[in-house]
Design goal:
By secondary structure, the chain is of the alpha+beta class. It is 45% helix and 21% strand. The protein contains 19 helices and 20 strands. It has helices at 3-10, 18-28, 31-83, 86-93, 97-113, 146-152, 195-204, 241-250, 266-272, 313-334, 338-363, 379-407, 413-417, 440-445, 449-467, 495-519, 554-565, 578-584, 616-620, and strands at residues 117-124, 129-132, 157-158, 162-163, 170-179, 185-194, 213-217, 223-225, 279-284, 291-298, 305-311, 425-437, 473-478, 481-486, 527-542, 547-552, 574-577, 591-599, 608-614, 629-633. Strands 12, 13, 14, 15, 16, 17, 18, 19 and 20 form a nine-stranded mixed sheet that branches. Strands 1, 2, 3, 4, 5 and 6 form a six-stranded antiparallel sheet that branches. The radius of gyration is 43 Å and the shape is flat.
């Protein structure tokens, strides 16, 4: 190669280290991150500021709600104190002018002491006004008012904010029953709280920041206080015809109200009206026509929400001004570097796109089309070569797994690959455990397929976990039935005892599962378990395309028949064949058995010597001999037909 050719190759971009390319790209594109960071800072700043503003608005709403709650509590205490006064009890039990004068004098003194109270009245149990701080109410019968109806039944009453039909002033009515010395209701004490008392508390909330708007919403979603009178007594969302009619008939908001229009704030009403905790929301104000943020908090004494709102641009305008200046500066400087960015971008995008396309081909399984063309000698070129080597490795591994996947079952494939398991069949002595759910077909008829799958998954998971500590190999799931092998594919000592212990563990797990089902009003599951020990052929069984490791032999059939036979025994014991008992009787301490003698089972000409195993709690109750094993003799069952 000539010196000139060598020099030209050395300075060609395809031979440059990727670090050099990245350094140049970062210099060229440094202004773009500045713009991104500026925008990110703006969004983060707006988000943080909005969160802080929302938290502050919630705190103002909560504080204001606390003051309103205290006002309502104090007023409740006032009417309760007044209703128990001796002068008042004497007036409602034996009315006369002297009693009326003394009561009216006391009511006047209470009003002088509390400027928030507009009116006191005393009614007899028929609803007639016996005393009032406003003489025009004397003698009127007000038994149709809700405050009288509730109090005469012995209950304290607090109204919503109402506009008086006579005074046309907003206020809240509080009433309490007046009881005679025998404890019977003889009259009603009534107090009207001025609406200005509530308005003053709401206005005080915005005294520090005049741009705030405070308003009060009742439990029906109606704004009962707002600094703009055009909004007051309007609902946030459309009211039902029934509620409209009731509010108008009650004249809650005055004599002249024939309709309660809405403000079209249904989304805000849904978030706010029934909220039990302080919160905030964003909405478009129908008054200012601008986006606003509102914090709200619920009162404890009334189902009202205190709301405090402000325009979003109050806190966003300064940050947006800074961002616009940053954008202008970045745009001016960035124009100088665009040409450089375009020049070097191609050296990155082409090889990266090739690698991306190759990764997509691998994902689709198109390994033959996944090879990457190596065009450079830099780090990206080396990565492409490594990528191609990886593809070759994936192909080889896939071929190996395909071969083994066709010859063995998934459960034992890894043991085959590691040489732990031999191909073909071998004679082994194993214990086979067969378990099945009683009446599962009838139960599943009443369940949806989805619920059946959920039940089976939960049950089979519990049973699998039960047998795992005892070396059981779950050979197969047959619907709700489980076949577990002890002694294959790996030989182990004490197969028989391990199978019995695993069966007892399954019973215990089932008991815990049934407790959970009982808590959910689901019927309990009942299972039968049969265990058989004997010679089997264990190995890979199946077709040319699919093998399955399993065992074949009479022991498998006997285990299934013993499980079916458990239905004939009281107490639903675990049934064993004689070979199982013989293999573990010297080590089976703490197990109680009953010798059931020779039993005939379905599908088998010769009877089977059967033993019944009972749960370990029976042993703990004291029913075992000195050795720890009890064998009881029981009569054989009649032949099954």
């Amino acid at each position: 190669m000539s010196i000139a050719r060598l020099r030209s190759t050395r300075f060609h971009p395809a031979t440059w280290p990727i670090a050099v390319k990245l350094a140049m790209a970062l210099v060229v594109a440094s202004l773009v991150p500045m713009l991104v960071v500026s925008y990110y800072n703006l969004r983060e700043g707006l988000a943080i500021t909005a969160a802080n503003e929302a938290e502050e608005l919630e705190q103002i709403a909560s504080s204001t709600g606390g003051r309103l709650d205290q006002l309502i509590k104090d007023t409740k205490h006032t009417i309760s104190y007044f209703s128990w006064s001796e002068e008042l009890i004497h007036l409602v039990t034996a009315p006369d002018d002297g009693s009326r004068v003394r009561v009216e004098d006391k009511m006047s003194r209470l009003i002088d002491a509390n400027e928030d109270i507009e009116l006191f009245m005393v009614l007899d149990k028929e609803g007639k006004v016996l005393a009032s701080t406003k003489p025009r109410y004397l003698g009127r019968v007000l038994n149709f008012r809700d405050y009288f109806k509730d109090a005469v039944r012995g209950r304290n009453y607090i109204s919503d904010l109402e506009v008086g039909t006579a005074s046309n002033n907003p206020g809240m009515y509080f009433s309490a029953p007046v009881r005679n010395l025998a404890g019977n209701v003889s009259g009603v004490a009534v107090l009207k709280l001025k609406g200005d008392a509530i308005a003053n508390i709401m206005e005080a909330a915005r005294s520090r920041e005049k741009w705030l708007t405070t308003f009060l919403v009742d439990g029906d979603g109606i704004i009962i206080y707002h600094p703009d009178e055009k909004v007051q007594y309007r609902s946030m969302a459309p009211l039902s015809a029934e509620l409209q009619k009731r509010l108008i008939e009650e004249k809650r908001f005055g004599m002249d109200v024939s309709e309660i229009p809405d403000l079209g704030l249904k989304d805000l009403a849904d978030k706010m009206v029934n909220a039990t905790q302080p919160g905030h929301a964003n909405y478009l104000s129908p008054i200012s026509k601008l986006p606003e943020i509102v914090g709200f908090a619920r009162l404890t004494e009334k189902r009202w929400q205190v709301a405090v709102s402000e325009h979003e641009d109050i806190y966003s305008r300064p940050l947006e001004h800074l961002f616009r200046n940053a954008v202008a500066s970045v745009a001016l400087m960035g124009a100088l570097f665009v040409a450089f960015a375009l020049l070097f971008a191609r050296t990155f995008t082409r090889p990266l796109k090739a690698l991306t396309d190759s990764a997509g081909a691998i994902e689709r399984g198109e390994l033959e089309r996944a090879k990457v063309h190596v065009a450079t000698q830099d780090e990206l070129g080396q990565l492409a070569q490594t990528f191609n080597a990886m593809i070759d490795g994936i192909k080889a591994r896939q071929r190996e797994r395909d071969i083994f996947g066709r010859m063995v079952s998934p459960e034992v494939r890894e043991k085959l690959l590691t040489g732990e398991l031999k191909l073909g069949g071998e004679n082994l002595r194993v214990s086979v455990l067969f378990s099945d759910i009683r009446g599962f077909s009838t139960m599943s008829e009443k369940m949806s397929p989805h619920d059946v799958v959920l039940l089976l998954n939960e049950y089979l998971t519990e049973m699998t976990e039960a047998v795992r500590p005892f070396g059981g190999y779950v050979n197969n799931f047959i619907g709700d039935a489980i076949v577990v092998i002890f002694g294959a594919p790996e030989a182990q000592a004490g197969n028989e005892l391990s199978a019995i212990r695993a069966a007892l563990a399954m019973k215990a797990r089932l008991e815990v599962l049934n407790q959970r089902r009982k808590a959910m009003d689901d019927p309990p599951l009942v299972t039968g378990i049969g265990i058989s020990t004997g010679k089997v052929v264990a190995g890979q069984i199946g077709s040319l395309e699919r093998f399955m490791y399993t065992v074949i032999g009479d022991a498998v059939n006997v285990a299934a028949r013993l499980e079916d036979l458990t239905k004939q025994f009281d107490g639903n014991p675990i049934l064993l064949n004689a070979a199982t008992w013989e293999g573990c009787k010297h080590d089976a301490h703490g197990i109680r058995l009953a010798d059931q003698g020779m039993q005939r089972v379905k599908g088998r000409a010769e009877p089977v010597h059967v033993y019944a195993v009972f749960p370990e709690e029976d042993v703990q109750a004291g029913r075992q001999d000195a050795i720890g094993v009890t064998v009881e003799r029981a009569p054989a069952l009649p032949e099954l037909r």
